[in-house]
């Protein structure tokens, strides 16, 4: 996801939040991964806001997108200008209302924002894992989140919500642990990457691996492949926008000049913007993590994993209510992909709502202020709250 | 609530499973959920209306009724409702058969084209009738069919679709009030309301 939200006034805030760490597998059993390898120990960085009620049935898990983190809302320090990535949606009186719900967000494994990933120390070598880190899947990420939910003493989540790669985690939750999810809200997501989505990820990965500083992933002492990672981010960033949003934002406007430079400076505003986004990303993200996370997204295939190739069979495991949302200008995960999952849910008699929201901003739309999106999320959660607390049934 | 919707609501058994095709902002589904504890689903093509219905806490699919109805398994609903939409349906036979595949019964309402006022207008002015129920000119109407109540009966008979109940109503499009017409409905009713499918137990 991009960082367009940096500039937006987000309204009332949850205030100061604290990043915590949950670790398992220090002794004894670690995490058995889908690849067959084992990972131990495993740490998850997580944050919570709101209060868990006595019945422990008001918990909402938010799953972040590809390069996000656990910092979903609020600030770390009182005078910290940087708000959580979904502060517009999560907070007191907001659609994901922290006066009513207990919100949890954790960094995925394979990431670099506090959870175990290639940047973490490999206990076998006393050195960062680098590419010795096992390949993880969306399923592995979710199975770690389940351990965190166990640790927090929560039997059933009122809702799991996420967009993009976070939406994949939401779908995985709903079929992997059907008894532990009351409602699921996959936003701007897919049950499997299209060839086009894999292709963009591969270009991004190649940019990193072609950087001589990458050194097959062992760069933690020799200097990071900053240029490769910046280019990877630029590629990704293009897929989050749309023709219309780029035209609106940049068109062919020149950056700080009246004429072409006739060299390879950033003449156009769009070039300058992408370079800025790339360089900013390098400061906060690890190149190896980017490789692992994009791979996990590419491998995700709900119908193969749970339905032997049939999406209908995959959703036959699910029991929760769904709210599926897509955006008209999202060409990374176009609406037809959301419609395919809705179709499979309906064929299973599941309770599903779907709306394709008109928005010109491309894939990023789920992170931007949108009255329709807020009303849909808030209204759906209100109803789930009533039904989940009362324990009413959910099939059609 | 529109008078035809009130009549539909009165025909629906408590705790039934209901599919409302073209549910708009979910007025009928909300009423049925609150008053009859039904389990409802709606399909609505307009994003704003569908969004509003979902925000009210209803289960609604934003999409086209012809496409969306195809995904449901056989007989999952007790009632499938199509209110004041039949006059815009491209293939009524196909849609009604689909409605009766996914539901045990369907309820259809439509403006009765051969109502007295329309006949007078045509007869005396020689022009296509424009009424409160059918308020469009020939060049801007979304309606592609004209449906007299007796022709709808013939249509059902021709397809061997049993009519479980029917009633004519005298009301107009958005009126919340109206009355049931028992005498000469094809002449005196502005709307026809039909329940089709399996006989009531």
Structural domain tally of chain B: 1
Number of helices of chain B: 8
Number of strands of chain B: 8
Reading the helices and strands of chain B in chain order gives HEHEHEHEHEHHEEHE
Q: Radius of gyration of chain A in whole Å, from Cα?
A: 21 Å
Oligomer: heterodimer
Beta content of chain B comes to 15-25%
Structure write-up:
The complex is a heterodimer of chains A (396) and B (201). Chain A has 396 residues and is of the alpha/beta class. Chain A folds into two domains: 282 residues, Alpha/Beta hydrolase fold, catalytic domain (Rossmann fold, 3-Layer(aba) Sandwich); 95 residues, Rna Polymerase Sigma Factor, Chain: A (Orthogonal Bundle), CATH 1.10.1740.110. In chain A, a hairpin with a 4-residue loop joins strand 9 and strand 10. The model of chain A has no long low-confidence stretch (mean pLDDT 94). Chain B is an alpha/beta fold and 201 residues long. In chain B, a hairpin with an 8-residue loop joins strand 6 and strand 7. Chain B is globular and about 50 Å long. At the A-B interface, helix 10, strand 14 and helix 11 of A face helix 3 and strand 3 of B.
In terms of topology, how is this protein built?
The complex is a heterodimer of chains A (396) and B (201).
Chain A: E1 20-24, E2 31-32, E3 38-39, E4 42-49, E5 59-63, E6 90-91, E7 96-97, E8 102-106, E9 121-122, E10 127-128, H1 138-151, E11 159-163, H2 165-176, E12 183-187, H3 195-210, H4 226-240, H5 243-249, H6 269-284, H7 287-299, H8 302-307, H9 311-315, E13 321-327, H10 335-347, E14 352-357, H11 371-390
Parallel strand pairs in A: 5-8, 5-11, 6-7, 11-12, 12-13, 13-14
Antiparallel strand pairs in A: 1-4, 2-3, 4-8, 9-10
Chain B: H1 3-11, E1 17-21, H2 27-36, E2 39-44, H3 47-55, E3 59-62, H4 65-69, E4 77-83, H5 92-102, E5 103-111, H6 116-125, H7 149-158, E6 163-170, E7 179-181, H8 185-188, E8 191-197
Parallel strand pairs in B: 1-2, 1-4, 2-3, 4-5
Antiparallel strand pairs in B: 5-8, 6-7, 6-8
């Amino acid at each position: 996801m991009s960082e367009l939200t940096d500039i937006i006034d987000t309204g009332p805030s949850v205030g100061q939040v604290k990043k915590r760490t949950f670790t398992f597998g220090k002794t004894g059993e670690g995490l058995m991964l889908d690849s067959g390898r084992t990972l131990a120990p495993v740490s998850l960085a997580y944050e919570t806001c709101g209060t868990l009620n006595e019945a422990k049935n008001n918990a909402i898990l938010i799953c972040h997108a590809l390069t996000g983190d656990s910092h979903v809302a609020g600030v770390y320090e009182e005078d910290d200008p940087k708000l959580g990535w979904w502060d517009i949606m999560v907070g007191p009186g907001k659609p994901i209302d922290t006066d009513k719900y207990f919100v949890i967000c954790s960094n995925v494994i394979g990431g670099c924002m506090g959870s175990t990933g290639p940047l973490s120390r490999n206990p076998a070598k006393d050195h960062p894992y680098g590419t010795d880190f096992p390949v993880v899947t969306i399923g592995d990420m979710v199975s770690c989140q389940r351990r965190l939910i166990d640790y927090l003493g929560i039997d059933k989540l009122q809702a799991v919500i996420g967009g993009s790669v976070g939406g994949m985690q939401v779908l995985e939750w709903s079929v992997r642990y059907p008894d532990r999810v009351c409602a699921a809200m996959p936003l701007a997501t897919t049950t499997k990457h299209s060839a086009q989505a894999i292709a963009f990820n591969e270009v991004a990965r190649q940019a990193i691996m072609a950087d001589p500083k990458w050194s097959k992933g062992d760069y933690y002492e020799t200097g990071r492949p900053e240029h490769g990672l910046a280019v990877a981010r630029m590629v990704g960033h293009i897929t989050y926008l749309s023709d219309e949003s780029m035209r609106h934002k940049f068109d062919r406007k020149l950056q700080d000049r009246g004429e072409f430079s006739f060299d390879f400076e950033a003449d156009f505003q769009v070039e300058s913007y992408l370079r800025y986004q790339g360089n900013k990303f390098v400061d906060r993200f690890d190149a190896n993590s980017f490789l692992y996370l994009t791979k996990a997204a590419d491998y995700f295939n709900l119908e193969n994993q749970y339905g032997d190739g049939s999406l209908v069979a995959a959703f036959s495991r699910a029991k929760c209510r769904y709210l599926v949302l897509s955006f008209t200008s999202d060409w990374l995960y176009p609406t037809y992909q959301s419609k395919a999952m809705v179709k499979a849910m309906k064929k299973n008699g599941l309770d599903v709502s779907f709306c394709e929201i008109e928005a010109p901003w491309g894939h990023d739309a789920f992170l931007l202020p949108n009255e329709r999106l807020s009303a849909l999320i808030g209204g759906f959660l209100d109803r789930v709250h009533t039904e989940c607390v009362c324990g009413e049934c959910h099939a059609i | 609530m529109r008078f035809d919707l009130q009549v539909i609501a009165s025909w629906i058994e408590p705790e039934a499973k209901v599919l409302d095709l073209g549910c708009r902002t979910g007025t009928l589904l909300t009423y049925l959920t609150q008053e009859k504890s039904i389990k409802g689903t709606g399909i609505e093509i307009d994003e704003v209306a569908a969004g509003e219905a979902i925000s009210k806490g209803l289960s609604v699919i934003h999409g086209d009724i012809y496409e969306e109805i195809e995904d449901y398994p056989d007989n999952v609903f007790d009632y499938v409702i199509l209110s004041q939409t039949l006059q815009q349906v491209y293939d009524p036979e196909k849609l009604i058969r689909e409605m009766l595949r996914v539901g045990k019964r369907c309820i259809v309402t439509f403006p009765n084209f051969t109502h007295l006022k329309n006949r007078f207008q045509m007869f005396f002015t020689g022009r296509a009738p424009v009424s409160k129920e059918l308020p469009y000119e020939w060049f801007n109407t979304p309606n592609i069919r004209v449906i007299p109540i007796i022709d709808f009966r013939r249509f059902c008979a021709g397809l061997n679709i049993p009519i479980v109940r029917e009633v004519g109503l005298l009301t107009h499009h958005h009126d919340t009030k109206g009355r049931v017409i028992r005498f000469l409905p094809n002449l005196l009713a502005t709307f026809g309301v039909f329940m089709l499918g399996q006989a009531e137990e």
